[in-house]
Records
---
Amino acid sequence: MSHGFCGIDFGTSNSALSAGLSGDTQLVPIEGDHVTIPSTIFFNVEERRTTFGRRAIAEYLDGYSGRFMRSLKSILGSSLIHDTTQIGFDRVSFQRVIGHYIGHLKTNAEKSLGYELPNVVIGRPVHFVDDDKIADQRAEDELRAVATAQGFKNIEFEYEPIAAAQDYETTLDREELVLVVDIGGGTSDFSVIRLSPDLKNKPDRFKDILANAGVHIGGNDFDKRFSLASVMPEMGYKGFLQSGLDMPLAHYHTLATWHLIQTLYTQKNINFVNGLYREAEYPDQVARLVKILDDQSGHELASRIEGLKIALSEDTSATAQLDFIEQGWAVRAKRTDLNKAIKADVTKIVDVAQETVTKIANIPAKNINAIFMTGGSTGLHGFRESIQKTFPDAALVQGDRFSSVAKGLGLSALRKFGAATQS
């Protein structure tokens, strides 16, 4: 079998893969006809199988017994990576869980292409972990170890915003100074880079990169803030006990955090929340929290809130139906509610974007010709309005929210490995 190369965008929320054999690259279908796949995995205990992506979500929502996991990338660099989690009668390390997912991407891509992919460029955020270089390097090393265990032989890394810039560069007919903004599920990353059609095949772009920066805030944080502001108060969040004491908040914060939800489903936590129900000033609200833990439906709740957030990108108001928790229960929200909930996070993201240009690259904001945006959350009105206000002279260019990075990583893989695969 022939040996090719690929670029993998292992995202917090979605993943994609671009590959080639010689002088070209293509996005590869890795879930049916889809070139993107949700970064989800479901260990179906009833059927004794492991499923991924959309099928994993469907089986979880269909009510099969098992463990559903999402936002696996958020575990890299954290203390959880070497911990184990209960799956059926076994305990499995989180590193092994991530390996299952990366291996699935590789295997499906190779089946689709008909050739092996031993050479890979993997996208990485500018910072896996903010303000901790040791933990950040540890996260990259962990991801390298996972890729090696799945059969990749030659492994390189590329900053995700730089990969996105290379995808944008293929569309240009003149030189531009570009701020690339990549808002993923777990991180927001920025690069200031000089792009030109005359430079796109240049093997070393180091001198064209004027700045890189990032912050560990992304779409999942928006989901959390919005959930705590919109739904959790109707489940007892920030309420009171009959004694007059404040309701404990930790379980609500965990329930609103994608990669921590599964940690709630222990008998100890269920007993604790049942105790809150008996002591709550408004037990009917806390009964909804009890129901979610009993049914292990926290990820379904998070999905409904995420869907509400996405709907508010298109409409000024929307409704999340929550009747799987309580018959007739629904939460209606306005776009202004969402913007208020995520305002502090958006402000921090935009501040880092501005610092990337004016302090790290040391150039005036007015010199930026275009802002190339990728990642699902770049579609939020609150973000787009804030970034345009900060860079009023720059054109806003929306890339493919879910595959621009993968396309760029494929181009990086072509430059790094293309000659070797042709020899």
---
Amino acid sequence: MATINETQDEIIDEFSAFDDWMDKYQMLIELGNNLEPLAEQYKTPQNLIEGCQSRVWIQADFDHDTRLIHFTGDSDAVIVKGLVSLIIQVLNDHTPEEILESELYFIEQIGLKEHLSPTRSNGLLAMVKQMRIYALAFKQMN
């Protein structure tokens, strides 16, 4: 199982293959299209991320035996769904401690900060914040 930083480095490598931002957006769209759809039962107000312009849901499930958090998510906007896919790819199936201690440097390194609109940027930060809140809650359950 790759560490959070190993996964971030892989994403940076994948995105660095493209010079043109249209190609990077295309890659985000493909990532979103490949994201496993979230079951309708999880598209609830509790799972809706505040601060996103489009609708984004993130579901977190904690495995008490392995101490890993499994994330699933979805969005009704294609590029945002790609962002959800990226964040899940990085933080999925890690312990609460790993998630809380991680520094998500890939967001800046692949150029998302300067190429996303302010509302998408805020939405991305809101997703990360919510996933860290889940991690904190699961950590305190022990």
